Amino acid sequence: MSYSEIKRLIDIFLSFIALVVLFPLFFLISVAIKLDSKGPILFKQKRVGIHKSYFYILKFRTMRVDAPNDCPTHLLEEPDKWITRVGKFLRRTSLDELPQLWNILVGHMSFIGPRPALWNQYDLIEERDKYGANNIRPGLTGWAQINGRDELPIEIKAKLDGEYVEKISFLMDLKCFFKTILSVFKGDGIVEGGTGALEKKKEIISE
């Protein structure tokens, strides 16, 4: 049995257990979202999956219902303007990503892999093609996420995704998993404004 097959079995088992165990947390978050703002509990968005197929990623809604759709957060001029109060907490703690356990269970995603690009992030998709990073299942977290997260420019992010493809293994996945937990607790690399936001800030300061 290949590692990709073993990885898929692990994904199914762990995502099912996590969905059952975390059900009370899902309920509490759902109530908080409904009390905080109008709109649905879940947000779904078209993303790029394995072999550049499309699927709809699930997240807890963190933005107002009138926020621009299919637009990466880093392209919004004032991202904080659209994020709800509960949404800020969910994004800071990455709890908004929990519904993707369902995406993992049904096979759209894996626990570890490149973060799925928006269908219209053509620059990121093209860069990932150079490294074969579009040919594996996208992940809940990945090598790029533990090496910079939101502040990475697209070229570096795609290169790191390529490094993961080259080194993919059980030990590599364990490393990504535990370092992700550490990064979430520390809040490393979270920049509201998304990919390359820190670089943009540095450019403004230096001018």
From TrEMBL:
<dbReference type="Pfam" id="PF02397">
    <property type="entry name" value="Bac_transf"/>
</dbReference>
<comment type="similarity">
    <text>Belongs to the bacterial sugar transferase family.</text>
</comment>
<keyword id="KW-1133">Transmembrane helix</keyword>
<protein>
    <submittedName>
        <fullName>Capsular biosynthesis protein</fullName>
    </submittedName>
</protein>
<dbReference type="InterPro" id="IPR003362">
    <property type="entry name" value="Bact_transf"/>
</dbReference>
<feature type="transmembrane region" description="Helical">
    <location>
        <begin position="12"/>
        <end position="33"/>
    </location>
</feature>
<dbReference type="GO" id="GO:0006355">
    <property type="term" value="P:regulation of DNA-templated transcription"/>
</dbReference>
<dbReference type="GO" id="GO:0003677">
    <property type="term" value="F:DNA binding"/>
</dbReference>
<keyword id="KW-0472">Membrane</keyword>
<dbReference type="InterPro" id="IPR000551">
    <property type="entry name" value="MerR-type_HTH_dom"/>
</dbReference>
<feature type="domain" description="HTH merR-type">
    <location>
        <begin position="1"/>
        <end position="12"/>
    </location>
</feature>
<keyword id="KW-0812">Transmembrane</keyword>
<dbReference type="GO" id="GO:0016780">
    <property type="term" value="F:phosphotransferase activity, for other substituted phosphate groups"/>
</dbReference>
